[in-house]
Amino acid sequence: MAYLELNNIYKTYGEGDSSTEVLSNINLSIEEGEFVAIVGFTGSGKTTLVNLINGLLKPTSGEVLFKGQPVIDTSHERGVIFQNYSLLPWLTVGQNVFMAVKEAFPKENKTFLKQRVSDYVAMVGLSPAINKRPKELSGGMRQRVAVARALAMNPEMIIMDEPLGALDALTRGNLQDEILNIWSQDKRTALLITNDVDEGIYMADRIIPLKPGPNATLGPEFKIDIERPRDKTALNDNPNFKKTRNAIIEYLMDIGNERKSVSQKEYVLPDISPKSFVA
Amino acid sequence: MKQDITLKREGQFLAFLKPLVGKFTPNFQRMDIMGSLKKTVITIFSVLVFLGLWHLGSKALYNKEANFKIEKALNEQGAVAAEAERACIASGDSSCQPNTLPSPLQVWASLQSLIADHKVITADKAAFVEKMSERNAQLIAQGKDAIVYTGRASFVDIVLTSIKTVFAGFLLALLIAVPIGIVIGLSPSLRSAFNWFIQIFKPVSPVVWYLLVFMIVKTLYIGDSSDNAFVISFISVGLCAMWATLVNTAMGVSTVDKDYINVAKVLKLGTFQKIFKVILPSSLPLIFTGLRITLSVAWMVLIAIELLAQSQGLGLFVWEEFQNGANDSNSKIIVAMFVIGIIGFLLDRLMLAIQNMVSFNKNESV
């Protein structure tokens, strides 16, 4: 049995006539230790999918199984890194991480908890900023705090909802490496939601495109057979990378065009010509 | 004449600053010093203009009333009486002074007389306590109540009573409005249950609140001869002023950022943890905005309520001075007006300082 399984998931918002089906017929299975990326356009229902997996939302029909058990609530076993960091602005970096650690290890004493907080803050390279508030940090630093907070809870699976979406290209690259680095240390199961195909190929073992919503569903999967650790600069010359990248982009473009042509309507123009005022 | 002096002073003041400005200009902090200096000068200048206009206005009103009095004497009693009236007004005798807007100097004199009065009363009180100490010790030993000073309250005592009332009312508003606000903010069904209540009672006038509180407290205190004016006034002030806090707290609690709620869910915080660690801290800025409005409303309605409740505060002071109609009553009222304004301003600054201290959003201070 797979580690995480999504069986025939449908998710509808609203009731009756005004309801919209965001996700339909989603089937997905992730093995333990795998790094899976889901790539899709903005507004295609990626965040809804993530919230179904982490337990913030319940599917309208179908079931989410985590280690064989249905997901009915959030759990410390599945750590979440949100798109917009979601740090509590009135707490310092250390306090934000401490809050999570304290919930994840309720039986441990304070020394252990404090040690764990400083370890994980050090891991993301923010020890000098441990007493600063999120407002005083840059976007990249804030997302690092969110990474530290999620990992300090020692989750079995990490779910990342466009974690680097709001960052500039350079910070993005650095953080990709950092996340991969942390991931490779104990190979936790990871699910990355992203809108960047290159990022997916660079980081994941498997990429699954999400056809855009409404009625979003998962497309065919693409395996990434590139040796780890991957070298970002060498990646561009890797024929395997080029092939996969082109295939995914072609697929996404096709469904994009499909969507456009579906909404295209033939307009009949009236047969008129400018009136001549010259009698 | 007096206004001439004021104007001259302005001129002298600016002239006096000129060498100072020159002295500071070569300094590297020039812009900063120049900026704050400019601000100070503008403020002082506007105060002087205000005092000048006030002085001119009061002078004009004084002359109008004086002329009317002389004219009236002339028409009714003849030229001799008019001349006598003119002499009487010019001599500054208190029996025939026009009773109108006092000049700044008269107000200043009244302030000083109020302070002197305070000193006299304090001395009286000390002497009384001294004199009665032996007797009171005996009374207490016999298990009876000690005799307390029941003389006139000084202006400082009156101001302190008002401040005490406002803080008691503010505390009452805080204790009622914040918990209820949190509860109705958390529960949409309780919110709709309370909504009509808030909408109906929010616009009710302070006077009506006073009457309502009076009806209830009077009955509660029935058979009790002790003075309940303070109780009535602080409860009325609290009830009048609590609405801003109630609405703001409910609003703040019900509109917590969804991201923070998601964090609380993902971390699996318990209900109490969620309320105290996530919802309350994130709604603190709005709660404090409400409390700031509450405090300023409390101070504003206090005057009217003290007047009605006959509580020994500034409101009653103003009303009694008006009824009194003594020669310096009007200037005492103006003194009270300034004291009310300055204390209101200081209370607002105090709340702003506390708000900035607890708020995580330092940029939001207005």
TrEMBL record, chain A:
Pfam families recorded: ABC_tran
Example of a GO MF term: ATP hydrolysis activity
Keyword match Transport: yes
Protein name: ATP-binding cassette domain-containing protein
Domain spans labelled ABC transporter: 4-237
Assigned keywords, A-Z: ATP-binding, Nucleotide-binding, Transport
Entry keyword annotation includes Transport: yes
InterPro entries linked to this entry: AAA+_ATPase, ABC_transporter-like_ATP-bd, ABC_transporter-like_CS, ABC_transporter_ATP-bind, P-loop_NTPase
Species for this entry: Maribacter luteus
SUPFAM superfamilies per record: P-loop containing nucleoside triphosphate hydrolases
TrEMBL record, chain B:
Membrane protein topology class: Multi-pass membrane protein
Keywords: Cell membrane, Membrane, Transmembrane, Transmembrane helix, Transport
TM annotation in the entry: 40-57, 166-186, 229-251, 284-309, 329-347
Subcellular location, record wording: Cell membrane
Organism: Maribacter luteus
Protein name: ABC transporter permease subunit
GO BP of this protein: transmembrane transport
UniProt keyword Transferase, yes or no: no
